[in-house]
Amino acid sequence: MYRNIPTVLTAEEIIDKMFRRSKKVEVPLSKNRLRFHKNLSIAKIYTARDVAVSTLKKYVDSFPYINKLHPFYRTLLDLLVDKDEYKKALASLVWAMEKISGFADKYARKIKGVGKVEEAIKFRKEFYGRTSSILKQIAPKLRYLGQVRDIIRKLPDINPELPTVVIAGYPNVGKSELVSKMSTAKPEIASYPFTTKGIVVGHMEIRGRRVQIVDTPGLLDRPLEKRNRIEKEAILALKYLADVIVFLLDPSETCGYSMDEQLKLLKEIKKDFDIPILEVENKVDLLCTDSQRIKISAKTGEGLEKLMGEVIARMEL
Ligand SMILES: Nc1nc2c(ncn2[C@@H]2O[C@H](COP(=O)(O)OP(=O)(O)O)[C@@H](O)[C@H]2O)c(=O)[nH]1
Ligand SMILES: [Mg+2]
User: Which Gene3D superfamilies did the record assign (predicted)?
Assistant: First the structure.
């Protein structure tokens, strides 16, 4: 999503591009030297304007409106980008487009009225000067948008509209094993803000529906209370992605965490996430308890069919 925002040129680069293109402009020869130079200057001005305005318009059109984003992306972007600064930067591009268009019309009109070749050239240069100065004025905004582009491109590449299962649970309870067993293709890693590990995204077909399955190493694998506010918000954004959370428990405790600790994390996640949570005991091949929870072995594949059925039942598809 939004991976197609074009590279944001610097003000200098836009100015260069503008000059390069208007230099190449040609108009039909005319016996009247004055008319020829007037036509040439006007054509150059409009070419320069087109380069500047279309470049800026491309940015204005391709950067997303934060408020119109899916809540999952909106929440993450809100944490990473100052919304006001971002809006102001885009607004200044619109302002510059209008200014430059206005100058082009104004100087074209002036040139039409001149009686000397030198005056036509003088006005053309004046147009270039004023346009360059407008572009220089928005230089910091262009730089800022370049940074925002990099941030947006690092947002997780995932479809938040697809029905999604998010896996939670302490390290080594078998989350990765489960995701790779359930996925039809090899799961892919998508970057996620505030964690270097990223999230792992797999896809599966359940009764003809494409469902996403997401492993969240480093996010939903330890208590939230230990995180700072920003990290916590980034983790809570997962609630806009998940339709169901599968909380994986390892009663064999071979993961290195006691059931007490694991249940504490489960309780916390239940408190923070207002979506259906499926409690699932993994490693049933090692230890089968007499609890009422769904029991699986991610390793042997036991119970996975049943788990899929339970997942789908809670998805309100
Ligand atoms: N015996 C057994 N081992 C399992 C099962 N699921 C995962 N494991 C093992 O537990 C270890 C941790 O699994 P992993 O998927 O990496 O856990 P994660 O940290 O939660 O992603 C690995 O050595 C797995 O092979 C299971 O159902 N039975
Ligand atoms: Mg893992």
Answer: 1.20.120.1190, P-loop containing nucleotide triphosphate hydrolases (3.40.50.300)
